[in-house]
């Protein structure tokens, strides 16, 4: 009787969240698969099923393939650069003070630095987009102004107007925005490592780099693995920054799948075609997440 009452209470608490999730999250996903097989324009009540025609058109769409290529480049570069910088900063904040009497010391004011690094992450993505658009302004932007101030006035790139630079300028903003969060994540992992283990390594004569590569990274591997998945998903999105800063230009050099999907749905009224893109991106994201989790799986180290 008591177990039955507990079951009713659990069901009562879970019913509302499950219903809301089903209606507002799961249901749209399922509907997208059906809409991808139609020519629905978004506002019309008339829908004609056209089978795989949207997917056939998608396979020959050069802009979509360009967007997907940009997403794949982000998929490689964004996690590598962000995790690399965040790991370096987190380890330096906790170990840059060097060994003293068999101890690993962090830098003075490490807490303040963590707050500074984390600050960009709490900013609205709209603020970040507008802020960096102004920084990259070729006429009166902060970046070109700094180049002029140090005597490099002859080097005045159009950061967001040059096809060769725009993509990398957007990537830099994505790294700047996310690195602080992962500094905090990795710092939490480093602080969970028993001090006795680090002290033993110092007493055995291990250098700072040996402690980093042979002790720190293996012991916070689960944190790194989680960060890789999160950043991989972010790399397959990047919608807001692209929309605000470049609109996919110049000449689709910064185009990404999510923004091209948005354009087709809400600018061109091609919801069926956009849903086909959504299905492809969903499958790609799911497959890459599963691959990443499997490829980075290691035997858990207990400490």
**What CATH first level would be assigned?**
Mainly Alpha
Helical content class: over 70%
Mean pLDDT: 87
- What share of residues are in beta strands? under 5%
How many strand elements? 2
Taken together, the total number of domains comes to 1
SSE pattern: HHHEEHHHHHHHHHH
In CATH, the homologous superfamily goes by the name MetI-like
The strand line-up of the biggest sheet is 1-2
Largest sheet: 2 strands, antiparallel
Task: Tell me what the CATH architecture is.
Answer: Orthogonal Bundle
Give the N-terminus to C-terminus distance in angstroms: 42 Å
The CATH topology label is MetI-like fold
Low-confidence stretches: none
Total helices: the number is: 13
Q: What is the alpha-carbon Rg in Å?
A: 24 Å
Q: What does the overall shape look like?
A: globular
Structural class: mainly alpha
Domain ABC transmembrane type-1: 68-292
Main location: membrane
Keywords: Cell membrane, Membrane, Transmembrane, Transmembrane helix, Transport
Protein name: Sugar ABC transporter permease
Task: Summarize this entry quickly.
By secondary structure, the chain is mainly α.
Task: Walk me through the structure.
The chain is mainly α and 303 residues long. The protein has a single domain (59-295), classed as MetI-like fold. It is built from 13 helices and two strands; from the N terminus they run αααββαααααααααα. It has helices at 2-35, 53-59, 62-95, 110-122, 125-135, 142-149, 163-191, 195-203, 208-219, 221-235, 239-245, 257-267, 271-295, and strands spanning 98-100, 103-105. It has a two-stranded antiparallel ribbon with strand order 1-2. β1 (98-100) and β2 form a beta hairpin. The longest helix has 34 residues, at 2-35. It is globular and about 75 Å long. The mean pLDDT is 87. The chain crosses the membrane at residues 9-30, 72-94, 115-135, 165-188, 227-246, 271-293.
């Amino acid at each position: 009787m008591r177990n039955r009452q507990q079951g009713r209470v659990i069901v009562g608490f879970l019913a509302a969240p499950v219903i809301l999730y089903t209606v507002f999250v799961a249901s749209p996903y399922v509907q997208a698969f059906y809409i991808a097989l139609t020519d629905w324009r978004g506002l019309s009540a008339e829908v004609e099923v056209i089978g795989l025609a949207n997917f056939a058109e998608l396979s020959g769409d050069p802009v979509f393939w360009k967007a997907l290529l940009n997403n794949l480049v982000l998929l490689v570069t964004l996690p590598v650069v962000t995790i690399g910088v965040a790991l370096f900063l987190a380890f330096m904040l906790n170990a840059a003070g060097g060994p003293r009497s068999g101890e690993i010391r962090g830098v003075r004011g490490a807490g303040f630095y963590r707050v500074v690094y984390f600050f960009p992450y709490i900013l609205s993505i709209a603020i970040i987009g507008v802020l960096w658009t102004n920084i990259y302004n070729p006429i009166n932007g902060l970046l070109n102004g700094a180049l002029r101030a140090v005597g490099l006035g002859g080097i005045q790139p159009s950061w967001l107007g040059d096809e060769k630079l725009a993509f990398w300028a957007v990537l830099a903003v994505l790294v700047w925005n996310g690195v602080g969060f992962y500094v905090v994540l990795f710092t939490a992992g480093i602080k969970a490592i028993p001090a006795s283990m680090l002290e033993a390594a110092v007493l055995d004569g291990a250098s700072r780099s040996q402690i980093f590569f042979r002790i720190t990274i293996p012991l916070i591997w689960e944190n790194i693995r989680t960060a890789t998945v999160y950043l991989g998903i972010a790399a397959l999105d990047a919608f807001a920054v692209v929309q605000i800063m470049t609109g996919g230009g110049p000449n689709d050099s910064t185009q990404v799948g999510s923004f091209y999907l948005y354009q087709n749905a809400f600018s061109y009224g091609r919801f069926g075609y956009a849903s086909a893109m959504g299905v492809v991106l969903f499958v790609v994201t799911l497959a890459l997440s599963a691959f990443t989790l499997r490829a980075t799986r290691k035997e858990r180290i207990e400490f």
